């Protein structure tokens, strides 16, 4: 077996299909053999700075010994067990801790394996919440409200509530209809409140789903908690189920442990994944409040939530999620997070001074900016590939969304490395065709 860089690449092209990637030699990926802290090491010895936390999942750096230990210990005693009819301490403990950290009215944790399934679960819970109520006099609820520019995942329900684009165009005939609201700002909030009030008056909406404060894959669009609060205040006068997709924003990405801490009005269901295991194993949760839980309590079998996955609440994933929470809540990590938040604020000032950049925005541990362009501003702007290559050639992993560049560092990242990323961006016009 050829495990050299070129050997791995040839074998990959011959046998593997990668996400969001055309097939073919032109798109051959870089083989990674090791990760350490904020760095990834290639088979031919390069050391690449992971400035996107490996798709936003990594919090504490790669190969963290504390997480590795938790994983190995769990693997040695019980790597997995069926989660219907059986339970285990790692899942119970994780549920207790998440509920306690969330506070408020959250009552019950449902496990699945990734962000998209957490969204499917939340949507199905919302639909069945009404179906379980046997109230034939009530108008049938069929509308789901989401934001323009949203991304909630790649399965069918999740695609349906996401913005329509080339990413889901081939499937559009099979997606259910959704009412899309513009993302709120000072100018449109009054109109959006009226729109929400109309939905409430109609009484036909079953769910309102949103990424609080930052829309991730849709372009790192940021918006103010006060506007979401205003919309929630109206939605909560109705029975519709409010779903917060915190799959990206959770675990201090917006500066607080959960983005909803910055809201006065809380959702009925919150979805978490990505950072939940610190980037070690796939796991997600959809956490329901008392109202949703009660619609499924003491019901006949046919009215229970008939949903599950083979690896639901995998023991190792739960164990490593508990370990990741241990690290996250340590004062040392909290200090690192504050330092990154502060550094990102400083960098935002420097970015604002660069003429080829516009729309600099940041919140918590995420900063995003747009490269000025005459071309289209979508993900398919070819500038994206040029930018990606430029940074990779400088051993920095950034994955631009079209002409939008963002940095989402693991909390372990050295502040000097954030400067290094800035320096690489600062000289972009000298090296990359930005038209
Ligand atoms: C990544 C993401 C998802 C989908 O999660 P997967 O684990 O990739 O299926 C859903 N919602 C948001 C906000 C995300 O960032």
Description:
- By secondary structure, this protein is α/β, with parallel strands linked by helices.
- The chain has two domains: 31-63 and 331-430, Aspartate Aminotransferase, domain 1 (Alpha-Beta Complex); 68-328, Aspartate Aminotransferase, domain 2 (3-Layer(aba) Sandwich).
- The chain is built from 14 helices and 16 strands.
- The protein has helices at 5-15, 53-56, 65-77, 89-102, 115-131, 156-160, 189-202, 225-235, 290-294, 315-329, 331-352, 383-393, 415-426, 428-431; strands at 32-36, 39-42, 47-50, 106-112, 143-147, 179-181, 205-210, 214-215, 221-222, 241-245, 269-272, 284-289, 357-363, 366-371, 396-397, 404-407.
- The strands form four sheets. A seven-stranded mixed sheet has the order 4-12-11-10-7-5-6, sandwiched between helices. A four-stranded mixed sheet has the order 1-2-3-15.
- A hairpin with a 4-residue loop joins strand 2 and strand 3.
- Helix 3 packs antiparallel against helix 10, helix 7 (189-202) packs parallel to helix 8 and helix 11 runs parallel beside helix 13.
- The longest helix is centred in the last third of the chain and has 22 residues, at 331-352.
- The model has no long low-confidence stretch (mean pLDDT 96).
- The protein binds pyridoxal-5'-phosphate.
- Pyridoxal-5'-phosphate (PLP) binds next to helix 5.
SS-based structural class? alpha/beta
Q: Cofactors and ligands present?
A: pyridoxal-5'-phosphate
- Under CATH at level 1, the class of the largest domain stands as Alpha Beta
Task: Supply the CATH architecture of the largest domain.
Answer: 3-Layer(aba) Sandwich
Count of all domains: 2
Shape: globular
Mean pLDDT: 96
- Give the CATH superfamily of the largest domain: Type I PLP-dependent aspartate aminotransferase-like (Major domain)
| Element-level helix/strand string | HEEEHHHEHEHEHEEEHEEEHHHEEHEEHH
List the uncertain runs: none
What fraction strand?
15-25%
Rg over C-alpha atoms, rounded to the nearest angstrom: 22 Å
Adjacency order of strands in the biggest sheet: 4-12-11-10-7-5-6
Distance between the termini: 43 Å
Please give the count of helices.
14
Helix content bin: 25-40%
The CATH topology assignment of the largest domain is Aspartate Aminotransferase, domain 2
Q: Please tally the β strands and state the result.
A: 16
Outline the biggest β-sheet: 7 strands, mixed
């Amino acid at each position: 077996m050829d495990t050299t860089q070129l050997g791995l690449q040839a074998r990959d092209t011959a046998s593997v299909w990668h996400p969001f990637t055309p097939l073919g030699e032109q798109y051959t990926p870089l083989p990674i053999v090791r990760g350490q802290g904020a760095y990834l090491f290639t088979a031919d010895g390069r050391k690449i700075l992971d400035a996107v936390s490996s798709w936003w999942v990594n919090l504490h750096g790669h190969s963290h010994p504390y997480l590795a230990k938790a994983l190995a210990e769990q693997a040695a005693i019980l790597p997995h067990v069926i989660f219907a009819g059986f339970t285990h301490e790692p899942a119970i403990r994780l549920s207790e801790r998440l509920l306690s950290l969330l506070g408020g009215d959250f009552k019950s944790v449902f496990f699945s394996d990734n962000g998209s399934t957490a969204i499917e679960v939340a949507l199905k819970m919302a639909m069945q919440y009404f179906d379980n109520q046997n109230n034939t006099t009530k108008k049938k609820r069929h509308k789901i409200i989401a934001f323009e520019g949203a991304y909630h995942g790649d399965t069918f329900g999740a695609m349906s509530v996401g913005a329509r684009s080339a990413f889901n165009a081939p499937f559009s005939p099979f997606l259910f209809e959704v009412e899309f609201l513009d993302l709120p700002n000072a100018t449109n909030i009054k109109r959006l409140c009226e729109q929400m009030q109309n939905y409430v008056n109609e009484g036909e909406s079953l769910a309102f789903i949103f990424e609080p404060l930052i829309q991730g894959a849709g372009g790192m669009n940021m918006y103010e908690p006060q506007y979401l609060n205003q919309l929630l205040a109206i939605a909560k006068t109705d029975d519709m189920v409010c779903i917060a997709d915190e799959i990206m924003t959770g675990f201090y990405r917006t500066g607080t442990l959960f983005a909803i801490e910055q809201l006065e009005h809380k959702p009925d269901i919150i979805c978490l994944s990505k950072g939940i295991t610190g980037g070690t194993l796939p796991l997600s949760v959809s956490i329901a409040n008392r109202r949703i839980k009660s619609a499924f309590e003491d019901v006949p079998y046919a009215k229970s939530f008939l949903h599950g996955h083979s690896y639901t609440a995998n023991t190792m994933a739960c164990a490593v999620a508990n370990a990741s929470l241990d690290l996250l809540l340590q004062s040392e990590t909290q200090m690192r997070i504050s330092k990154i938040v502060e550094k990102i604020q400083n960098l935002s000032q420097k970015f604002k001074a660069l003429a080829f950049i516009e729309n600099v925005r940041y919140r918590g541990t995420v900063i995003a900016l747009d490269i000025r362009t005459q071309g289209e501003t979508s993900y398919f702007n070819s500038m994206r590939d040029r930018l990606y290559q430029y940074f990779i050639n400088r051993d920095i992993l950034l994955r631009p969304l079209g002409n939008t560049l963002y940095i989402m560092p693991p909390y372990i990242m050295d502040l000097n490395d954030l400067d290094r990323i800035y320096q690489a961006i600062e000289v972009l016009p000298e090296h990359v065709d930005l038209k």
